[in-house]
Amino acid sequence: MRWSRVLNKYAVPQLVAGERISTGRSFPVYSPLEGSVVSQVNSCERGSEAVEAAMASAKEWRQWEPAAKRDIFIKASRLLAERKDDLVEIMSREVGLPAMAAQAFTEDAVSYVSELGSLIPVRNEALPTPGKNRQFMVVREPIGPVLALAPWNAPTVLAIRAVACPLAAGCPVVFKTSELAPYSQFAALETLLDAGLPKGVLNIVNASKEQSLELVPKLIAHSGIRKINFTGSSQTGKLIASLAAENLKPVLLELGGKSAVYVDKDADLDEAAKAVVVYSWANNGQICMSTERVYVHTQVYAEFRDRIIATAEKVVPVFENSPQVTPEAAAKVVNLVNSAVEAGAELMFHREPTQQSATNNVVGRYILGGVTPQMEINDTESFGPVVYVNKVDSAAEAVELINSSQYGLNTAVWTKNVARGIAIAREIEAGAVHINGGTVFDHGTIPHGGVKSSGYGRFGAQWGIDEFSSVKTISWPMVQVLD
Prior knowledge:
40% of the residues lie in helices and 23% in strands. It is built from 14 helices and 23 strands. Strand 6 and strand 7 (134-142) form a beta hairpin. The longest helix is centred in the first third of the chain and has 20 residues, at 99-118.
């Protein structure tokens, strides 16, 4: 029976040097919807062996023909597409993802793999003579084995992204699964194995939350690991960066956000309201790019307020009964909202769920107004279905407020004057600014990442491949070949 059909207490293995390991210790993963055990996960006691397997495969993978690597990526993208229904079901069971979100994340994973495959091989450059009768060239070479860590909230695309960028650069990978979504992540990554990835090039280790506290520092410190990529909270990212710095290792960090939207006085208010509601509530707000702050020009604030409330009334049935991943996450959302309201914020829209999950982690949908800088919710990532809408007197004021955040991941600007939108975008401190679009946007053809507490480095396309290569200069004496 295929893995994709075993949806009860599936034994999620580890993968070391091509061997699937299911014996020894394990830990359970519980459904956030039902509270029942979704899978039994083989826990890591062989982290060092996984790194050694990656080290042993590094030379072989580096020397593989680009066309052969590309064939693996293309086949893996096809397998991801073929298994989409199974992956959606697994994600729904394991982390409570709505089917719409699970489908979108899997489609994004397909995009990432196919786009990165098309960019193999790594680019090199020949440059003019610098002088002293020497010529030189600059080459990019794989940086070496990479430790990759990705979270649970978009398990297919984030796991694929974490390994596909270094793989495309010629680097073997040790991937540590999220303790909340190991089933979903292994199932997605298995497409690369089934597509023909050589043994040892991708190794997968699992660990419970408690075990991870010991395992991850050991993996970072291992001499065989040359770079780390991590997607997750800013708090955890600081710890990862600190551990990497102690070992003089580079890191790519894609961290939290407090994504903002500016609605200018000439904006299409209906479309802007729709984008704000959808991208603040999609996947229950459990996306690092989710819309959490909206600044509306005072001339259209009253009208926009009416539009967003009307839009929320229409849209809320689609989202209202999906869970936060844990009761603790749900409690954080409610506490942030209650604290803001007690401090004077307006509860502009609120809808309680019509039903609860077995684990009591379904929260209402919220739109707030009048949030001040003194309120905790002002610049704390809620990671939940809550957004606040404040008025501003100018685009300059909106930019100042957007930039006052510790975060800088994705933003959006709504205006019918695209040239004006670009000018505003150039003033915003963020990894991406989407004009007349939503804050939740990523694609395999563009760079993705943030600034400030949202991290540094970029996934995606050529930028994502370059992250995992080192630059080498080779020079040689000029030779006179003509008489």
